[in-house]
Design brief:
The protein is mainly α. It has one domain. It contains twelve helices and no strands.
Length: 286
Amino acid sequence: MSLTSTAASAGLARGRVELRQAFSGAELVGQCLWPLVTLVAVFLLRDVPIGDGSGTGGGATLDTYILPGALGMFVALGMLLVVQQLAADREDGSLLRAKVTPNGIPAYLLGKLVQISATIVAYLVIVLVPGLFFVDGLALDRPGSWLTFAWVVLLGLIATQGVGAVVGSLVPSSRAAGYASLPILGLIAISGVFAPIAALPAWLAWIAQAFPVYWLGLGMRSALLPDSAAALELGGTWRPVETALVLGAWAIAGLVLAPIVLRRMTRRESGSRVAERRERAMRRIG
């Protein structure tokens, strides 16, 4: 077995263990809470019209546009989950143990990607499957809609988590990870996950388009909404080629840069530093 396949096997095994822990016992309640709350919110908006029904939306209701945004939001939040988990694993010594294990860093990253991606896919299923029964105006019966949905989710998961791994490698503690979450949430807010960004100032729209979250939201809408809804987007089209290129570029960049940045960070890790961080955390709790 090659080193690459060894790391892959270890990463998949690690991801399965962490996923089982995340969906066991009391953790299961917390995992299901937010997607269920989101589903209830979408349901309550099912009869709220957009505008007066005479515009481009053609009398669509708000839930039709909120559902793709909710799904895109959960995929984008994978970025935040990676940052938080990396910071926690750095403090409790998990990253240090991965450092001293052969192929430990690639296996660790793959395990995180598997665990967080599977968690997010579970969120998507909880929201999307029931939503199909009460959300009107979706266009999943178009040729290629499900294929578009699949590749947008796949590239979105890799791209956003790659960014999260790089950011998480740079934050020194769980407290710093909390501060780092603020610009990430701000990025999600300006990226038009729930609605097109045509109404934003031009300079802000350009910033949003430089990051993968905007293209993730655009891709979700292109997969789930009718073609007429593209009139609300920048340029009046779904831009599928640009979406695939930008998400693919961010995914590749994350997969290349994250192991490098993480290795450099773990070189500075030691048992004494882990113990020092634990002691500081205990003092804050006390």
